[in-house]
From TrEMBL:
Keywords: ATP-binding, Helicase, Hydrolase, Nucleotide-binding, Nucleus, Transcription, Transcription regulation. Pfam families: TIP49. InterPro entries: NA-bd_OB-fold (IPR012340), P-loop_NTPase (IPR027417), RuvB-like (IPR027238), RuvBL1/2_DNA/RNA_bd_dom (IPR042487), TIP49_P-loop (IPR010339). It comes from Beta vulgaris subsp. vulgaris (Beet). Belongs to the RuvB family. This is RuvB-like helicase. One of its GO terms (molecular function) is ATP binding.
């Protein structure tokens, strides 16, 4: 069942308040460490974002600076920062830095339009198994998986069939509201020659054969 749910995707669309633009500068600001008299720590980070409409200098929390490092953000990259959660997403390299060669692996994107601070439709692709894991061990936050966890109020440490059914109900609700859509995937079965006739009969309806649907529904 875990492998089945890994192969079923969910595309979620949310309208979020973000800061978006091409990075013009990243400047970490150091301060004396309060824990000891030696060494320094990052107190905050200054970052410049540019769009077609203008530029903006932001003063960010040290945790967001760590996220910038994890995303490997450099000057010239196009990013957006979610205002509520502070999560950072690197969209790609600004196409102003694109060269005439085709062998570069970098993905180039256009300079964002509008203001740096805006409301943006953020698209997130997850699998049903990702939702299972996130809600089995909820961490809190403002993303869709944490919000789903708050709706069904799980306090579990393992993925149970009951948890999956609860998640399915919430997923169906999001689909009915037009917030999300299912993305069919592909399930690879290795060592297929080891399967017996009953297994093949179970898989047959998935290939468009209507027979034995009562058997499939139990799974």
């Amino acid at each position: 069942m875990e492998n089945f749910r890994r192969s079923i995707g969910l595309r979620i669309k949310e309208n979020k308040e973000v800061w978006e633009g091409e990075v013009t500068n990243i400047t970490p600001v150091e301060a004396e460490s309060s824990l000891s008299g030696y060494g320094k720590t990052i107190s905050h980070c200054m970052i410049g974002l540019k769009t077609t409409k203008g530029t903006k200098q932001l003063k960010l929390d040290p945790s967001i600076y760590e996220s910038l490092q994890k995303e490997k953000v450099n000057v010239g990259d196009v990013i957006y920062i979610e205002a509520n959660s502070g999560s950072v997403k690197r969209v790609g390299r600004c196409d102003e830095y694109a060269s005439e060669f085709d062998l570069e692996a970098e993905e180039y994107v256009a300079l964002p339009k509008g203001d740096v601070h805006k409301k943006k439709e953020v698209v997130q692709d997850v699998t049903l198994h990702d939702l299972d894991v996130a809600n089995a061990k909820p961490q809190g936050g403002q993303d869709i998986m944490s919000m789903m966890g708050q709706m069904i109020k799980p306090k579990k440490t393992e993925i149970t069939e009951k948890l999956r059914l609860e998640i399915n109900k919430v997923v169906n609700r999001y689909i009915d509201q037009g917030v999300a859509e299912l993305v069919p995937g592909v399930l690879f079965i290795d060592e297929v020659h080891m399967l017996d006739l009953e297994c093949f009969a179970f898989l047959k309806p998935g290939f468009g054969v209507a027979s034995r649907s009562d058997r499939c529904s139990r799974y």
